[in-house]
Amino acid sequence: MKVVIFIRRDILLKELAENGYNVIYGARKHFSTYDIVSKIPGRIAYLALIIGVWQIYMPDFYFNKEVSLILIFSSITAIIINQYNGEKERYKETGNRLIQLHNGLREIYYQVQSSEEKEIEKELCKMKELMDEYYQISISKQIFFSDWLAHYKLFFQSQYEWINEQKNFTWRDKVPMSFRIFVILFAVVALGSIIIFFINGWGVFDVSK
């Protein structure tokens, strides 16, 4: 006996948009991990080499110790990132497949828009098939900062108008909360350091004073 599934068209459109957002964001997050693993270690090494040569040229620079400390932390970061290097192609391939799934959901969305409610059962089944594959192939382990980069790739480098028809994104959706908190904390620390510097002069790092 065939079970007939009935769902209102407006509800299915909202569900398609929600799923479309999850899939395209997942794709951008996989690409973000791939980009970070592929590019960041090399750029860190290049900058470390330039700064190292500059420190040799300017050995009496007042903040040399602080610069060296930053280089050490950067090198540790590069080592951590390199742990993903063996799997980076898998992230790229998964991201490409997720883009295809997103495009499939978008096609279903427009089909549902132009269909009668009694004819959308087939589209509902197609959506479930695409989402089953999405859950099956997605990689849960993503590198740090991939969240921030994925938001940028999605909202500033992608076409998401069909999703926005249902979700009506605001700037709060486009800028992740963790990034906003980081910017605020960074601004507070930077401002505090500047104030202390101007109060104490060049002796700000001289603990003996």
Structure characterization notes:
The protein has helices spanning 9-57, 64-82, 88-113, 121-137, 146-157, 161-167, 171-174, 177-200. The protein is an all-alpha fold and 209 residues long. It has two domains: 9-168, no CATH class; 176-209. The model has no long low-confidence stretch (mean pLDDT 87).
- The percent of residues in helical segments reads over 70%
Q: Total domains, how many?
A: 2
Strand content: under 5%
Number of strands: 0
Structural class: mainly alpha
Mean pLDDT over the residues: 87
Helix-strand pattern, N to C? HHHHHHHH
Task: Sketch the major β-sheet.
Answer: none
Number of helices: 8
Return Rg in Å.
24 Å
Unreliable stretches, pLDDT < 50, 5 or more residues?
none
Overall geometric form: elongated
Please describe the topology of this protein.
Elements: H1 9-57, H2 64-82, H3 88-113, H4 121-137, H5 146-157, H6 161-167, H7 171-174, H8 177-200
Describe the structure in brief:
By secondary structure, the protein is an all-alpha fold.
